[in-house]
Amino acid sequence: MVNVCEHMDRIEELFTSDRNEAERITAEILEKAEYFAEELDIELTLPRVTERQTLRANPPASNASEYLRRTIVIPYLDSVISSMKTRFSPEHRPPFELSSIHPACMIKKEKTEFLPITENIAKFFNIENMKGEAELWYVMWHKKNLSSEKAQEIDVIDLIREATPFFPAMRKALIILSSLPPTTATVERSFSTLRKIKTWLRSTMGEDRLNGLSLMSVHRKLVEVQREEIQKSTLQIFARNPRRMLFQ
């Protein structure tokens, strides 16, 4: 995740460079647009300009390149750069820096570089006594003289077990690290699942049932393995709370 932050910094620098050379970027885009327009027999013209316009951008422009640069290229690049600066600002870096406490990343850093990172993590997640533990944690893993390959094979769960007796602050940080999703696939999968479960014909149900059906759909492989156990526990739940309906 630290590499992700560094990569995003490089991307931001690239967009900033393009923003400073907006004329060149616009010329390249316009050249491609003219090529496709010629293939489709379309003439590229400036939109009608009025003295007062409220429904679309209406900057003064003498040609198509100038209009494209002022209405599309520069606003788009400014929006992307602003969004990246907000999302990957220094205030939001500690969650990405959590992976630095893993030995695979830690053995590549000097102590003077590692300790400020742990201070930022402790301040962001409100973890007490992490500063002293971080130095001991750093020394302990460096004394083991692990190779990079061996360090990468260590799971976060194993690190949590290692930190349990004497490193409560590091243990808390590792638990947070293990709970952070590396991608948004889980969230997107939940939306797709809800679309399948909550249909027009089945639009009213309780929150507990909706959550249960969603989890069963997302973890369908686990459900298949434990099908009999899940069926028994489900029947027991329904047996404890019988649903009595009166029919006339």
Description:
The structure is a single chain. By secondary structure, the protein is mainly α. The chain has helices at residues 2-20, 22-39, 64-87, 94-97, 103-106, 111-125, 130-143, 148-152, 156-163, 168-179, 185-197, 207-218, 220-225, 227-240. Helices cover 68% and strands 0% of the residues. α1 (2-20) packs antiparallel against α3 (64-87), α2 (22-39) packs across α3 and α9 (156-163) packs antiparallel against α10. It is flat and about 70 Å long. The mean pLDDT is 82. This is 52 kDa repressor of the inhibitor of the protein kinase. GO terms for molecular function: protein dimerization activity. InterPro entries: HATC_C_dom, IFN-induced_PKR_regulator.
The main pleated sheet reads as: none
The stretches of 5 or more residues where confidence is low (pLDDT under 50) are none
Structure summary, number of beta strands: 0
**Molecular shape:** flat
Q: How many whole angstroms does the radius of gyration measure? A: 28 Å
Give the helices and strands as they follow along the chain: HHHHHHHHHHHHHH
Whole-Å distance between the termini?
A: 62 Å
Q: How large is the share of residues in beta strands?
A: under 5%
Structural class: mainly alpha
Number of helices: 14
Mean pLDDT: 82
Range of helix content: 55-70%
